[in-house]
Structure to design on (274 residues):
């Protein structure tokens, strides 16, 4: 029988939000058994924390947003991905803005901060989200599905018309060691011609060559961590989005899936469990 785990110590990090461009102070704090992952505003102490669950997803445009009432938190997927793989069941995420720090556009810093803090076992049985049948969500040529599997595995195919990227495929048996090396360093990617339109719509205001890898019609504007960094980052996002349905045990297979399909699958899984 597995026990729930929470952080052994508080984690503190200051940065800016990817889409808001606003400074943010983040604290990750231990939480009581059964709490789950909770997002709260440290500057709004009267506001009720928002559970990071599929039922609280409110938007998926370029990021995953959760909310309740007037309170919302967006671009939570990178942090959620690191918490998922580190096996953190219960954590209070305190922010003084609506968005966690983007750092370098990956989950590497979050993963390392959690590892440095460590986790402790709690006096509660962990409810693992065991995939025991086939779940699937389709959107034309895009889909994501979950199949029974005795561990956690993700197989992702990315489709991009740009000749620089094309079709990318990556398959990973997810362990903390493999994730830290192969997935956590994979950063958010943007096409240069889209940047101005995104910023005109209030998105990507914290984006720069330090926080996003950018490509144009000539090539990459900054060095890559991996030749197939895009598909690796897609796996990073999947692991963050599906954490909204709990600690997953199963095989996730996706083709050109994004936050909308990822969170739709998380909702499908979570609703059946409830």
């Amino acid at each position: 029988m597995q026990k729930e785990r929470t952080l052994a110590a508080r984690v503190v990090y200051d940065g800016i939000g990817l889409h808001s461009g606003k400074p943010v102070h983040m604290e990750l704090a231990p939480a009581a058994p059964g709490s789950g992952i909770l997002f709260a505003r440290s500057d709004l102490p009267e506001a009720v924390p928002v559970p990071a669950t599929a039922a609280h997803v409110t938007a998926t445009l370029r990021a995953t947003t959760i909310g309740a009432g007037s309170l919302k938190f967006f671009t939570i997927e990178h942090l959620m991905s690191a918490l998922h793989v580190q096996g953190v069941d219960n954590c209070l995420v305190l922010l003084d803005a609506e968005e966690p720090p983007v750092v370098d556009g990956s989950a590497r810093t979050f993963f390392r901060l959690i590892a440095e803090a460590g986790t402790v076992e709690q006096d509660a049985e962990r409810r693992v989200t065991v995939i025991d049948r086939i779940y699937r969500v389709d959107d034309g040529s895009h889909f994501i599905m979950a199949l029974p599997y005795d561990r956690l595995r993700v197989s992702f195919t990315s489709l991009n018309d740009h000749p620089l990227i094309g079709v990318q495929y990556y398959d990973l048996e997810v362990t903390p060691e493999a994730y830290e090396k192969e997935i956590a360093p994979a950063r958010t990617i943007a096409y240069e011609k889209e940047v101005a339109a995104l910023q005109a719509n209030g998105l990507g205001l914290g984006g720069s060559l330090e926080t996003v890898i950018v490509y144009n019609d000539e090539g990459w504007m900054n060095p890559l961590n991996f030749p197939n960094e895009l598909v690796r980052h897609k796996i990073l996002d999947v692991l963050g989005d599906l954490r909204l349905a709990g600690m997953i045990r199963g095989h996730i297979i996706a083709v050109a899936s994004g936050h909308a399909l990822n969170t739709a699958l998380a909702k499908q899984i979570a609703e059946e469990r409830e």
